[in-house]
Amino acid sequence: QKEVEQNSGPLSVPEGAIASLNCTYSDRGSQSFFWYRQYSGKSPELIMFIYSNGDKEDGRFTAQLNKASQYVSLLIRDSQPSDSATYLCAVNSLNTGGFKTIFGAGTRLFVKA
Amino acid sequence: NAGVTQTPKFQVLKTGQSMTLQCAQDMNHNSMYWYRQDPGMGLRLIYYSASEGTTDKGEVPNGYNVSRLNKREFSLRLESAAPSQTSVYFCASSEAGGGTGGLAFFGQGTRLTVV
User: Fold this and answer.
1) In chain A, is it the N or the C terminus that has fewer CB atoms within a 10 Å radius of its CB?
2) Residue A41: partners with Cβ closer than 8 Å, 6 or more residues away
3) Is A43 in the B-facing interface, judged by CB distances under 8 Å?
4) Which of the four pLDDT bands, split at 50, 70 and 90, describes residue A97?
5) Please, are residues A19 and A102 in contact by the beta-carbon 8 Å criterion?
6) Chain B contacts of A93, Cβ < 8 Å?
7) DSSP letter string over A79-108?
8) What average pLDDT values come out for chain B (115 residues) when binned by 10 residues?
9) In what order do the strands lie in the sheet with A61-66?
């Protein structure tokens, strides 16, 4: 079982719709959770982070965390064509070598104009 | 404010050649990472260093070695390059984990081709 799992997509939504991206993780002791956006040929850039159960909103983005279900999601409201990218879920947890951050394979999102 | 700087940006190697990818960060972070990214595979952790003087294997360490030279610098070495190591390599750094720790800042990436 991979430590961080995401549906690879592609997820296609029309402009103005809500895009819902999901991620599950295996380490129940994980403490911090991140969503990154990556445009083709570019480095990942941070969108949101969350470390408490519940919802966290920032503009059009909402991150949701459920530690009991080991599930974290990202909602993008009013999706725009410029949101078309790969979204990476990342989880930070403590291991024998110290804290490390593991990424999922990413979900490709296409927003159709 | 440079953040995370990795060199080179592009490299072509012949099978069997060796090379070292350099990474430096100026954010005084404790943790540094090397990832590789292949099409459709997301970011896979090669090695990481939770603090100066320590290194540990990630998901795909075979064929690589690392050195945490000091708190700023973390290098990745390919001793005998193979075509399977053709990939985009990212260096990243973060504060140690816990709470909001683990938030990673990335370098610009190195596109490596092994022929």
Assistant:
1) N
2) none
3) yes
4) low
5) no
6) 97
7) --GGG-EEEEEEEEEEETTEEEEEE---EE
8) 89 97 93 88 86 89 95 96 96 71 84 96
9) A4-6, A19-25, A71-76, A61-66, A54-58
Sequence letter at residue A80: Q
The encoded tokens of residue A69 equal 């279900």
Please judge whether B97 and A43 are an interchain contact, meaning their C-beta atoms are less than 8 angstroms apart.
no
Average pLDDT value over all residues in chain A = 91
Q: Is B96 on the interface with A (CB under 8 A)?
A: yes
Q: Which of A31, A88, A106 sits opposite B98 (nearest CB)?
A: A31
Q: CA-CA-CA-CA torsion for A53, A56, A62, A64, nearest 10 degrees?
A: 0
b/e burial code for range B40-56 (CB count within 10 A of at least 16 → b): eebbbbbbbbbbeeebb
Residue of B nearest to A29 (CA): B98
Reported as a single tens digit per residue, the pLDDT across A60-69 is 999 999 999 9
Secondary structure percentages of chain B, helix, strand, coil, to 5: 5, 50, 45
Chain-centre distance of CA B54, in angstroms? 15
In Å, how far is A16's CA from the nearest CA of chain B? 27
CA neighbor of A102 nearest in space, from A38, A40, A20, A30:
A30
